[in-house]
């Protein structure tokens, strides 16, 4: 290459510059540099701020010609080029040249885009990372066509032949930290959507969710259906059961489809609402509905079983439900669950 450059440099100064740009990026790729190093070197070569953005993760890397990260507000791009990998556009590179474009800017951007694609292909997407919310929404939206969904999942780093599970999360903890815990050995993508966090993963271990996290786990293989299931399961979470898998709900999932005004007007649900001002009563009823046993409920509540029996007797009168009968227990559990769904 150097010999060829030497021979052609006598023909045209612009051709010489073009060959030097090509050789510059060939050298960087042989050295297997990472994205920040690519952006830093490119900014130095171009003499202006240079940026890289990956669609799948939303990651942006910008460097100034002095080798420092560009902290100023991005200027209008003087030139851009798509980053393409396997015929899919996975990102963009650009220059922020304040004056007119340089004759070699187009070539520089083209070679930079090729180098970025090589880095992404070599190292792959991060196993756990905050992803572009728009891309995640495209992957899980019921309104997306299958081609767009498949492309979004591919850009997020998920193989086409693997199912993607969706988790709906409410937590004060960072989403990427939760993702790393529940799926430590597989790719995980996380993004906030409105008031709910979304995790996409090929496998999910419910036992690995940290304390304080409420999570609903979808079961369907299709991401859009899995998302709907995850949102439904999240509504059924409680302090006693903070992680709910949609499959475990069974027929109870139908309660989520009951219109709020219908549930609110139900006599049993209204009775639960009236006793909601007494946390002890709610906790006692919840423990009894969860266990179906007076003694096991007493163990959960750390109370003597006779104390729990007296509470349940009073609750039965308040609710107008015989809690000693199996049918009454089911009725109370349905009413308690329906009341909780009103607040979601």
TrEMBL record:
Gene3D superfamilies hit by this protein: PucR C-terminal helix-turn-helix domain
PucR C-terminal helix-turn-helix domain boundaries: 282-338
Superkingdom of origin: Bacteria
Membrane-spanning parts: none
Protein name, entry field: PucR C-terminal helix-turn-helix domain-containing protein
Organism of this sequence: Planobispora takensis
